[in-house]
Design goal:
The complex is a heterotrimer of chains A (about 270), B (about 230) and C (about 500). Chain A has about 270 residues and is of the alpha/beta class. Helices cover about 50% and strands about 10% of the residues of chain A. In chain A, the strands form two sheets. Chain A has a four-stranded parallel beta sheet with strand order 2-1-3-4, with helices on both faces. Chain A has a four-stranded parallel beta sheet with strand order 6-5-7-8. Chain C is of the alpha/beta class. Chain C is elongated, with a radius of gyration of 27 Å. The two termini of chain C are about 45 Å apart. Classes of the chains: A alpha/beta (about 270), B alpha/beta (about 230), C alpha/beta (about 500).
Chain lengths: ~270, ~230, ~500
Amino acid sequence: MPPAPATATATATAGSDARPTSPRRVQLFVTCLVDRFYPGVGDAVVSVLERLGVEVIVPSDQTCCGQPAFNGGFTGEAAAMARHTIDVLTARPDPVVVPSGSCADMIVNHYPGLFRGDDPYAARARDLAARTYEFSQFLVDVLGVTPAPCPGGPRLAYHASCHGLRGLGLHDQPRRVLQAVAGDRACALPDAEVCCGFGGLFAVKMPGISGAMLDAKLDAIATSGAEAVVATDVSCLMHIGGGLHRRGSAVRVLHIAEAVAGARRA
Amino acid sequence: MTGAREQILGAIRDGLRHAVLPDAEADAGAVAAPRAGTAGTVGREKLWQQFTEALTALTGRVHHAASAAEAAGIVAAVAAEHGARTYLSWDGDQLGCDGILEELASRGLARVTYDLPFDGERRAAEVAALGDVVLGLTGSDAAIAEAGAIVLASGPGRGRLASLLPPVHVAIVSASRIWPSLPALLADAPELVGRGANTVVIAGPSRTADIEMTLTHGVHGPKYLHVVVMP
Amino acid sequence: MPSAAAAFHRRIDDALADTRVRAALASTMTRLTNGRAGALASLEASDAIRDQARRIRAHTIAHLDTYLDQFARNADARGCRIHWAPTATDATRIIVEIARAEDISLAVKSKSMVTEEIELNAALGAAGIRVVETDLGEFVVQVGDDRPSHIIAPIVHRRREDVARLFQEKLGARPEEVADVAAITAFARRLLRRDFLQAGMGISGVNLAVADSGSFCLVTNEGNGRLSTTLPRVHVAVMGLERIVPNAADLGIVLQLLARSATGQALSVYTNIISGPRRPANPGAPGAHGAPGAPGAGEPDGPDQLHVVIVDNGRTRMLDGPLAEMLYCIRCGACLNICPVYRHIGGHAYGGVYPGPMGAVVSPGLMGLDQWSELPHASSLCGACKDVCPVRIDLPHLLLTLRAQAADRELGPWWLRLAMPIYAAVATRPALYQWLGSLAARVSQGLARGGWIRHLPGPLAAWTAARDFPAPARRSFLQTYEQRRGRTGNAS
C-alpha cells in the first residue's frame, strides 16, 4: 500500500484554518466498503485531516454500521451491529468522521430508533449520533475550512448520494468542497440529485430497475463532459464505476476525500 | 346501518390506541387559524392585476364595466363572437348588476329558463332541451387573485347549469370582493362553504392534458370564460 | 418465490422492456415535477404551509372518530344520506341497492380511486347497471378495457394514435373525428354529454370532507366532476374514511397544496364544495331529504338525492400501528412523479390500485403483506418522495417498517434470510470479520481480470448482469493501517 501522496497540496490556505474551537482529534469510522474495496479513500481522509491539524484515531475493532441489514428489514441483526459499533465508537469521546453519507445517516438518524427507550444503548446511540459527521460535512460545518484548490487533474462532475443529501441535509457541503478544490474543472451533471440506483441490496433484489436507473445516470455523465465522477459514498461509486467500466468508458470515479487529497486512481 | 357505523367508529377508536401519528397535536386550536398566505397586505388594484395575469394565462378573458349598459355591451359582444342568440342566466337580482337582463333583452338576446321538478323524471328531457344554448351568465361571490379564480355559490335563482352546460361562461364579479388566496377567503368567509348546496371555485375554462400531455380546453365544462369586473 | 412476488417481477420485466412507454412516462413525469417545483417556488411561505397541512392532517387522523362522526351528523342535517361500509363488499352492496331502489340503469362516474379499490364498476355491471367513466383518461381506460397507470394522469402510457384507433374500433368514430387531440376530446365530449344527460345516477369520490359543515370537496379539471354531480337526480359520493379535515379554513390550507403538488396549477379548474343535495324551498320542512319543496323558490338544479358512502376497506387496519401516518395522504401524486423507480416501471407494474411510493405502502397497508411483501423492496430508499410530499409523510420510513414486518414474518428471498444472521454474527466479531474478508478477497482474485469481476455467482449474479464488480483489496484498510502507522486505535 503506497504511503499517502507526497504531492498532497498545502494545508488550508490563510483565512480558512480550522476554527480555534475545532476538535483536535477525531475517530475515523472507515465503513465496510471503504475498508475492503477502496482503502485508498481511508488513506485520503486521514491525510486531509492530518494536514488540517486534526489527529485521527482509527479504532481497530470497527466493522459494519449494519445498514444493509436495516434496509432489508432485519432490525435484530442491525441492532446487533449497531451495538458493536456504538461500543467501539463511544469508548472515546471524540467526534466521528465517516467517508460515507449513508453510513453517517445510519448512525445519526437510525441508530437511536433501533433501541427501546429504556435500553442503555438508546442514550449511547443518541450521544454518538450527536457527534458523527460525514467527511465533507465535517470539513465545512465543524472545522469551517475551505480546502485549497488542487490545480491540474480531471474535470469533475458531482453526483449527490441520496442518504447524505436527504438524510443528513448535505445540500451544499460536498459541492462547496468540490468547488474549492476543482474550481473551473467542475462540470454540471444533469439530474445530479436523482438516485443512481444502487440502494444497497436493491441492486441485486431489483436488478432490472437498478440497471435502468444506472443507465440513466451513465447517460447523464456522458453528456456532462466530466472525466471523473465524484461522490461522498463509495457505494454509489462502486455501482456507477462498475457501469462505466462495463461500458468501456474512460470516465473514472473518485471519492470526495480523494479529490481533496489530490489523489489519482486508475 | 347503525351496526356498520359503530363497527367503523369502534375500529377507529381501537386503532388509535396503537396508531403512530407523528406531529399530531392535541389542541385543535393550534391548527385552526391559517398563518401563511392570508394577510391582505397587497392593495386591491394589485390583486386585480394578479387576477388578470393568472386568468389570462389560463386563456380566460377579463373585462371591466362601470354600468349595466356597459356590461350588457360586453356580454352581447361575446355572444356575437360565438353566434349566440340565447343564454342561460342567474336571476336578475343575483347577478350583481341591476338591469342587465333588460339591457340584454333590448340587444336581442333571449334568456332561456328551465324548470327541473324535484324528484322528477322529466329532468333529462328538460336539460337536453338546453343543449343548444351557447352562453351562460352568472354573478359570483368572490374572486381569488393568485389563481385567477371566481367563486360561485348555488342558491335560489342561482342555477349551476349556467356556468356548466354552455360552452361560453360570462361571470360578473364585484371589484370589492377579491381575496389574495383561497385560504384567505375561507378564513374570512367560511360561510361560503355551505351557503348553497354547491359552492364551486372556477379557475379558468375546462381543460385536460390526459392524452400525451397535450392541453385541450372545453372538455366537459365551458371552453371560454369571461369575467366582467364591476364596481 | 411465491407467486405474487414472481408475478410482480414479471410485470417489472415487461415494463422495463417497453421503451416507448418509458419515454412517455419520463417526459410526463418531468413536466409534472417541473410544474410542481415552479408552483411551490412561487407560493409564499410554502414550507410553513406544508408544515401546517401536515399538522392539520395529523390532528384530524388522531381524532378521526370525532371528526367523522361530526361530518356524518352535519351532512345528514343538510339532507345527505350517510352510509357506512366496513368492507368493499359492503360498499358495493350499498351502492347497488341505491341504484336498484331508484331504478337506475345508467350511471356516470367522475374519477375516484376508492371506487377502483372496491371494484364498483364490476359490481354495478353485474347488477345490470351501465357505468360510464367521464374523466377523459378513465373513459379511454374503460373503452379499452385497460387499467390506469397513474393516479392523476391515467393514460400516460397511451399514445394519441392508440386512442384514435380505439375510438374508431370501439365507438364508431370516423377518422376525421379523431384526427388530433382536439378532435378526440371533442368527440368524447359529444358522446359523454348524452350519457350525462340520460344518467339517473352520478358517482364521484371525495377529495376532502369538511367536518364542521358536513360538506365535502371534489376537485377536477375537466368539469365532469360538476356535470356528474349536478345533472343526474341521484349523486353517490364514495369517501375513504381518512379523507377529511375539521373546517373550511383547514380545507383552504390543504387545497393550497393539492393542485400545486399534483400538476403545478395553483388550483384545479373546478373545486366543487358540496353541502347536501339540491335545496328545496323549505329545507327544514318534513321530508327534507330530497322531497319536493315549493317549486321555483328552491335551488333550480342539482341532485335531488345525495348519498355519502364512508368506506373503511382496510384503513382502520392501517391506522392500527406504525403505518398510520400513511393516512395523512391527500392523493396528489407528487411522489409518483418524482420517483425514479416509478419513472422506469410505470403504474401497471405495481399491481393494485395505487402505484408509486404511496402505492408501495398503501397496498400492503390496506390488504396485508401476504400478497404485497415485495412491493416495499422496489425502492432504493432515495427519499425523493418524502421531499415532495405536501404533508411530509416519511415514506422511506414507512417502507422500512413494512420491510421489517415482512422480515419478521419470513417473507422474502431465502438466501437473504440465511445470509443476514451470518453477516451480523461475523460483523460483531472483528477478527473473524477481517479474516473472512481476506478469504473472500482471495477467492475473488480468482474471478477478477484487471481488478474487475464480470461474473459473480449465485444471487450476486444480478449485480454483474448490468455492471462490473471491483475486486476487493487483499488487505483491508484496517488490516494495513496499524502496520503502516505503528499505533493502535483501540481504547483497551
